[in-house]
Target: Serine/threonine-protein phosphatase
Amino acid sequence: AFKAAVLIQQWYRRYVARLEMRRRCTWRIFQSIEYACEQDQIKLHNFFSYLMDHFTPSSSKERDFISRMFISGESFKEAELEKYCDYESLEVPDSYTGPHLSFPLLPEHATALLEAFKQKQQLHARYVLNLLHETRKHLKQLPNISHVSTCYSEEVTICGDLHGQLDDLFLIFYKNGLPSPSKSYVFNGDFVDRGKQSLEILIILFTFLLIYPKEVHLNRGNHEDHMVNLRYGFRAGLIAMSRVHGKKILKMIQNVFCWLPLATLIDQKVLIIHGGISDTTDLDMLEKVKRNKFISVLRGKKRKESNRNVEIQEINGENKVEADPAGSEAALSLCPQPRPAQAPSMANKLEFSRWVRQTVQEQIEWCRKLVDISESEDEELTYSSMVSLTDLDGPCWTRQEEWKQASNILWSDPMPQEGCRVNTVRGGGCYFGPDVTGKILEKYNLQFLIRSHECKQEGYEFCHNRKVLTIFSASNYYEIGSNRGAYVKLGPDLVPHFVQYQANKTAHTLTMTQRQGFTVALISRVEESAFRALREKLFAHTSALISAFKAYDKDNTGKITLSNWATAVESVLHLGLPWRMLRPQLVRSTADGMLEYKSWLDDLAMEQRSQEHIQSSLLEVIYRNRSNLETIFRIIDRDHSGLISFEEFHQTWKLFSSHMNIELTDDGINDLVRSIDFNKDGNIDFNEFLEAFRLVKQSQ
Model:
């Protein structure tokens, strides 16, 4: 009996170990593909930004279009934005059966919203715009770093990424209770994208923020960024949900995102940020940056940075025109540079201060005119745009330095190795090691950091000797059963207490024995989903894989070793996966240990080919570029209508033709756009846009 028990125990341990190995491999696949997608988004954004930086508009109309292509109209001034998003002009029809809001909001309004969203009801656009308007007013009064104390409540609850998964937020409130004067919450960014109920989550969080402004705190995440929203579904879902008022709601949300605080500090000891830190993280600078200027933190704006340099150089008595006459001669001919008045004596400090303010303001206006930039707000001169008597000798940060601080806070990840290096996996932010964490904690007298940004299998994870805590609140993030969600509670002793959960209605009704079988089935389901996504990725790079395989097939036998197969696949996909371990799931075993790679690729093509029998090479191109094509389509669709107008296409093609040195007349561009408009309705929808690429590929 004893031997039998030991044997059963050994079998069980092997079985559990194999399940865990399968789970970890599945996890690596999902995470690698996710990060590769983020990297593609940043590369695409940088490509368009490069085109914009090197494009010379031939008219003010072109200049206006190009300057607004990426900022999506955030150059609305305060009054213009409120007029465009005027909620008072919208009437709520008598047939509307959803929740009603009146301001100032009360706890009853929040309860009504929660019940309405559980019943799949929607909030009327008037109330949404009104809520966004009030939220924006409140956020504008907040500092970049919110300060929270555990003295005023029993504990503070910190939640990580939610990503549009409303069921997770409901479960958190069910387990932990609703926000109240005795229950504070910090929501650490990434409220939107990927999930289908991003808007509902925003509405709930903003409602509680206005009801309990001292107890509810929101940090900005890397997905509170309109450029990221182009790819990951929030923008498209919002426009589809509200065809009539979706554009106004989207514009207001984009502006609200800009005003979200960047960090939260609990008892001056625990720093909560969405992504991470770097070896150059400066909390003093972070407190003073103009966070509302970063509509997107994917990339610093070169033109605005050059303007900032002009301001600094002019203040210091330098002349940028003399340093670079070729680059600015044309601009100066259109807009002459103002000459500052004679400086008054330093003895009269009041007069000298006025002279400095007036001179700087004139130079800023001149720089804006050079590139036709209009600011999003009617702003008074502040620390980052004005030099006063008290800080003439103080730090004067460039736009690039400020952008880098925000970018690292929102995009960085911890790593086990020492040091700090560029995050090439995501394409944004950096990797920071335990030594960097230690230096920042010591410099600002902190106990530990709490961050989110990374999905963890158990919902949370410590690293850097328990000095960095990652918390992730979106359960079933990749697939049902892929991961748990979690939140953490901190009391006055600042000792973290974790609560884990999984928002899965099926599992809640099962017995213990049934749950064990259900867990195995979930692992198999998640594993199948991961390998399906990986095979799609492999198929999308068929041409590159063939070239890589041929490099190992010197004798043109059509076969390579399985070891060379693993090396070649990694050289093409750069996913950092253990291909030798994954091989049994992707490649059928062979007696001689050789792989007929063309036959293997044909099998992949058969698996992915649609019912329309599109040729494999064409399908490969569409699979590989569909996400990028969707993002490009949304970039060109500047008015968020879901359609590309002829004017939008015309201006964008001018940008491409300038980069590719292709001479095209206006008539030629008009002929091109008409040929893409297959149904002749005067606009290009996404299917027509995709069909144009398909036809070009076929002709090639």
Observations:
- The first strand starts at residue 145 and ends at 148.
